[in-house]
Amino acid sequence: MNVILSQNLKPERRKATQHDRLILAIIGYFMLTLLAVFCIFPFLLVVSSSLTEESAIVENGFQIFPTRFSLEAYQILFEFPTDMLKAYGVTISVTALGTLAGLFLTSMTAYVLARKDFKWRNIFSFFFFFTTLFSGGLVPWYLLIVNYLQLKDTLLVLVLPMLMNVFYIIVMKTFMSSIPEAIIESAKIDGAGDFQIYLRFILPLSKPALATIGLFIALAYWNDWYNALLFISNSDLMPLQYYLYRLLGNMDGMRKAMMESGAVVNFNIPTESLKMAMTVVATGPILLAYPFIQRYFVQGLTIGAVKG
Amino acid sequence: MRRSRGFWSDVKKYRTLLLMLVPGVLFFLLFAYIPMGGIVLAFKQFNYSGGIFGSPWNGFDNFRFFFNSGDAWRVTRNTALYNIAFIVVNNGLQIFAAILLFEVAGKWFRKITQTVMFLPYFISWVVVGAIAYNLFNYDVGTINMLLHKIGMDSIDIYNTAAYWPVILVLVSAWKALGYGTIMYLAAITSIDTEMYEAAEIDGANIFQRIRKITIPNLMPTVIILILLAIGNIFRGDFGMFYNMVGNNGLLFSSTDVIDTFVFRLLITSNEIGMSAAAGFYQSVLGFATIMLANYAVRKYDKDHALF
């Protein structure tokens, strides 16, 4: 298109345009490469550090390329992986449970709010929306969960508080509102009830939104450490991110635990590279899935940007 | 036809839909509305035997302590200043990156840079904390190693409050870059291409085109996103501050925000009443700014107001 347009211009104009274009291309490629390096550099640093021999880290610090390559940190992590596997198990169960339940409740709520013939949809929409404007703050919420619901040190406390999110309901509702009403009407004529319409017609038609919101929910559960920080002290119930958090802050305790469990026999645990290896292991599944799931998130941002 | 049969016939008519709302309504009643009632704690001397309702009232004592200690001003100022810095730097960088991505990039280059820039959005703040440790640690941190290489002394980043505003702004920019760039890129892509063609025929060069077409067309999106962000100016990102700084008291003067302060009072020092008071203060402040921001958005463009 640009080529055709340029041909309509006078020759000297065309030359000027091409000149500007070249300048912009140079600036653009340079700056974007710089920003991309800024974004990826820390990841490379962590991976490289996790693959460096501990003595080299102590001598030269963390480096962008391993000065002395070593898999020692990973060996120790995987030799006696009980704690790590437990943490993985907790995170996977919480993520699976939370995503399925959350997706079901979010979509069901959104469906009702998207039904244009539902008389009280505005009142209920406001009921949900108001919670994003005002809250009781951390303390009452914390006391409710700890003292009244008695959920401290349960698996449920890692799932329940994050189960529903108003933003996801709104995005889902916006998407469902764009489904032609004729579908609901004809289903009604065929004698389908409201719940059946949701289950048999609206859900299958909402697959793109379900995929996007489902991934947002799953990511939030996978990355959650906050609920564990507040409510979990039992080491059997620690999710992966919180396990990593503890390991970063309390290497001495970890060392002790590892020696007691027989994972290592001497004091020469590669502290620094082990921290970095654990970081890699905790992030790994996300990084592996990232190339495939990225586009759903991009989709979600653009649905969300349209807003309802 | 069915119109004036009253409330109960409506309930009957919508019974399935209402039943389908029950879990959601219960959820938000339990985790959002009931805690709002707990705000009374801000006016009480909390003890565990009395609980929320049995503890004795103490009027405005909690607030008096909170404001007289000087903490209120410090954490409010930090929260607001950090958020203002985040809004300016993050949006500036994101718009810059989006315009460049739209104008210059070849298909593959564009895909790869966008993918790489979006990556930090996906990792938890704990992992960001680990990265920070890698970069800033005194003994083995990357930055100090680089300083050694060029013959300079180590700097004690984790014990020097002055570095942290810069560090936190950079970290925030790093984590938010991809997300915002994609939003702005979507907005630029939706600009009518005829405008660009007309500009080209009129002999506008590419920089004039960006200045006279792309940026003005992007302005409504920018203004709305920024106004909405201003609405949240008194809400600190707890995950970020807590994982970057933790309970390192040496840094509190320049890093403590309302959210970390409330958390510490509750968990570390068990000052339930004062923590509730600080939380209530934040909620009221936040509510007021969101209402103001929404009012501003409404005035600017009714379609994009929150409500």
From TrEMBL, chain A:
It is a multi-pass membrane protein. Keywords: Cell membrane, Membrane, Transmembrane, Transmembrane helix, Transport. Residues 88-282 form the ABC transmembrane type-1 domain. The chain crosses the membrane at residues 21-45, 87-114, 126-149, 155-176, 197-222. It is found in: Cell membrane. The keyword Electron transport does not apply. Belongs to the binding-protein-dependent transport system permease family. This is Carbohydrate ABC transporter permease.
TrEMBL record, chain B:
Keywords: Cell membrane, Membrane, Transmembrane, Transmembrane helix, Transport. Pfam families: BPD_transp_1. The chain crosses the membrane at residues 21-43, 80-104, 116-136, 162-186, 215-234, 272-297. Residues 76-293 form the ABC transmembrane type-1 domain. InterPro entries: ABC_transporter_permease (IPR051393), MetI-like (IPR000515). CDD domains: TM_PBP2 (cd06261). It is a multi-pass membrane protein. It is found in: Cell membrane. Belongs to the binding-protein-dependent transport system permease family. This is ABC transporter permease subunit. It comes from Paenibacillus brevis.
